[in-house]
Amino acid sequence: MSERETWSTNLGFVLAAIGSAVGLGNIWRFPWLTAENGGSAFLVVYLGLVVAIGVPGLVAEFVIGRRGHRDPVGAFRALSRSRWWPVVGVYAVGTTLLVLTFYSVVGGWILRYTVGSLTGAYVADPATYFGTVSFGPEAVVAHLVFLGVVGAIIATGVSGGIERSSKAMMPAIVVLLGGLAVWAFSLPGAAGGYEFFLSFDVATLRENFLAILGPAAGQALFTLSLGAGSMLTYASYLDRDESLPADATVIAVANTLIGVLTGLVVFPLLFSQGLPPGSGGEGALFIALAEAFASLPAGGVVAPLFFGVVLLAAVSSAISMLETPVAYLVDEHAVPRRRATLGVVGLLAVTGSATALAPSAFGLIAGTLADLALTGGLLAFVVFVGWVLGRDAVDEYRAGAGSLSTPLAGAWHALVAWGLPVVLGFTLLTSLASLAGVALGVELRVALTLGALVVVRTLVRMGRE
Ligand code: PHE
Ligand code: NA
After folding, report:
1. Between the chain's N and C termini, which has fewer beta carbons within 10 Å?
2. What sections of the protein cross the membrane (predicted)?
């Protein structure tokens, strides 16, 4: 077999991983969920979960990838003796395909907004113009174009395609968003947006805490690309001389800052036009933004810049999803990269087109199934790192991290082995119960979570004997 690809620099890896993290999750899903779940109360819970689950979970996913040095399926095969763990890798590959099925449809929307705002076609009547964007034949075509762009980058390879494009896209996103935030600040009526986004109300938080927890956890995973195997795959192209916890922290901080920066553009803009977010579901945010741009004097110039940023963010995330099944075909079945890319893109062309024609399927995947799949995936990853890898995981954590990391590594491992499985198991059970329409009390859910974890732990123990 030919030599496996690698990043050319650690910075290249970090930028690619930030590119994976920063995406439609920050720009589209985050304002949408924040608005649906009571504004800043949601922001607070979400930020807490990024620190408590996101960063340690990201390190865990990196540990599997770098130590396994392969795609998700091959990594689990290399690191365990049980036949069952590679199934988790297959599940992860399936998750990236599932997420990409709706993600590339939204990518297609963004493409049309960008083109539409360049030509100014929507200015006269944005609601009507963009009414055709979300679902239907035009959405199918736009989604195919988006997939084509993503496929072209992946076909070019890890350092030549993913790394090189990330090095161009990430700085562009930050510079453009910063400029847009300054512009949004100058709009009359912007203050309402800041208040909605940033004011903190303990009463709302306390009242809604348990209801917010599920969506906030789902968003914390989604925004950091956790549980899908994409971060695992990116880390598999790394050498051992860099610190995984240091990289994970930089990635999470950058992702959060870019998310907040996006909020500082979106919310003032919407409020300045008297268009509070949150009503009308998934497509509404972009229509509202387009309306805001259409009625502002500088809107014709600013709109293409804004949608261009969103497009870069969407492309850099979608490439990390597509890379996962492609890496699987390359590593496990020795399929040449180009042919592997073509095959996976062909499959997604079909599933994505179906989704672009069926709003109900789209809603189910984007609103529920994607979160469930990511939560289940990360749960399996942390159980593996905590209970199967054991000391090896601590070694991998410490590689390249200096002496300070010794006590931190122990704390991290305890969190990954105990804290994360309980929180993720509880979240998963809660989402499954609400999907099935059964009401389970909190105590019962805690008891069921702990019971299930004891069973899994016993199975893992037996598998080791
Ligand atoms: N993190 C990306 C975003 O926020 C989405 C993503 C999920 C990317 C899972 C890869 C894997 O848009
Ligand atoms: Na991105």
Report:
1. C
2. 7-28, 40-64, 84-111, 140-162, 174-197, 209-237, 249-271, 342-366, 372-390, 411-429, 435-456
What CATH number is given to the structural domain containing 116? 1.10.4160.10
| ipTM rounded to 2 decimals | 0.98
Per-residue pLDDT of 155-183, as tens digits, reads: 999 999 999 999 999 999 999 999 999 99
Q: Is residue 63 part of a domain?
A: yes
Taking the C-alpha atoms of residue 171 and residue 379, their distance in angstroms, rounded to an integer, is: 33
The boundaries of the domain holding residue 54 are 10-358
Atom number in ligand 1 closest to CA 30: 4
Evaluate whether residue 86 is within a structural domain: yes
Report yes or no on 428 lying in a domain.
no
CA distance linking residue 465 with residue 462, whole number of Å: 5
Q: Give me ligand 2 centre to Cα 160, in Å.
A: 17
Q: What is the pLDDT of residues 232-267, one digit of tens each?
A: 999 999 988 889 999 999 999 999 999 889 889 988
Q: Which residues contact 138 (CB under 8 A, 6 or more apart)?
A: 112, 132
